[in-house]
Structures are given as C-alpha cells and as structure tokens.
Amino acid sequence: MEWQTVGHEPIQNALERQIQTNSVAQAYLFVGPSGVGKRTLAKEFSDKLAQAAGYGSPQIEFSFAQSTLEQVRELIYQLSLRPQSGGRQVAILDAAEDMSVSAANALLKTIEEPTAASIVIFVSSRDSVLATVRSRCQVFQFGRLTLEQMRMWARSRGLEGRPEVMLAADGSPGQFLLYPSAPYAASEVIWSPDVQGLTAFLRASLAERLSLIGRWAGDDTEALRRHIAAWLDVLYKQPAVCADFKKALIVLLEAWRRLQTNANKKLVLQYVCINIA
User: What is the reported pTM?
Assistant: First the structure.
C-alpha cells in the first residue's frame, strides 16, 4: 500500500519503520498548518497498521471542536473496547487544539495505558495542545506543501493544467491552485498560506480574483476563517512589510472581523478581491 499524501516523506518513513519493527507508539500528535495532509496521513497510517496486522481497519474519528465532556467520556468508553477482529483500533482525534483541560485529564489514563485497545492520533492545526497531553505523545511536525509538491500531486492524478480549482493534497480546502484556461494559460492564481501565494493573488487581475469567488464561497465559513488567518499569520511575521502587504493586512483584518460577526461569506470575499490590491 503506497502513501497517497505528498510532501511528508520523513514522517512517512518514520511511521513505516515503526510498523516494520513493531515499535508503534501508544499516542501520536500530528501538528501543522491546515490543509497539508495531517488527517489523511493519519488515516493512511491506520490502514497500514491494519494491513500489517492482517485484520480489518477499525477506526474512530472524533473532533474536539465544540465537543462536550459527555461526548469525551463516550469516546473514552469506545477506546476501551477491543475490536472483534482483534488487534487494536486507531482513533483519529481532530482539532486537538480545542481540547479542554477536563477532556485532556479524562483522556490521560487512556493514552498512558500500555495495554490499551487503541492507538490514539491527535491532530492539531496549532502548536497549542496542552502540555499534559503533548508530553505523552510522539510528536510529528508537519510543514506547508510547496508549489512543486502540489504540482506533483496534481500530475499523479492527471489534473495538472485543467481549468478548475484543485484541492490540496489531502483533499481539504487548505490550499488552492487555479490553472486558468486560455488566454491566461501562462498565469497561475495561487491561494496558499505563504508569501508566494499572497503575492500571486495581489498580482492577479480583478477578473481573475473574482473568478474564484464562486468556488471559495462554496467553503464553510470556518474554512474561510482559516484561509484568512493563515495569511494574517504570514503578514504578521514579515520583518519589513511592503506597502502592498500593509494594505493587504488592513483588508484581511477587516475581512476577519466581518467573518467573526457571521457576515455573508460571499460578500466578504468580494470585499477582499476588490480592495486587497
């Protein structure tokens, strides 16, 4: 079984070695930017574990976003049950940055118990997971995908050059590529959470920016918040922000404020496209 995610070969190799040497950890923390393949890689790791052990692929998926303590207790109960097919099940616990102290304390025994029925993988988009949990996990830090890595993913699926928005390598809306059709074949409008992506967006024509609205507006509001937050994070870290970036920062801050008040997401995107450059 080949890995489907791209751009994280050192992590993939380390996990492969653990499977081959039967040294899989009890708990993992996959942490890094949104949309780079953390959750998808966790699922692939689960499938590889099941394949190596020769049993089915029992898998639990859970998100700490807006979860209650009662839901966490139900999760702990599920983690205590051994799969009928034998072996251990894998629990992929998303939005670990939103885990409360009470939820973390309730889970500590589960991730510390060496004979537990489950392997737990916490997935977080921010490096703010509680220390009590992080210290009990094997931590893998994920980086952002490069443009070349995203192109490689597109080529492997026969998608390169098609005039449509393509999702990031894990199928999430974290990063977008748009390969416009003629007469814009030589240009690329890139939505990615880095300086290169923002620069490309600033240099695009208003028509090119507006052409993305229909597709971006199809995202849920939380995904749009993550997009804007990623660019804000890039801009805040610039030691010497040029005039274009300063203007972009002001526009993005206003867009962020509007999204926080549940403004119409399509109108917010129109505001960004028209005013950002």
Answer: 0.60
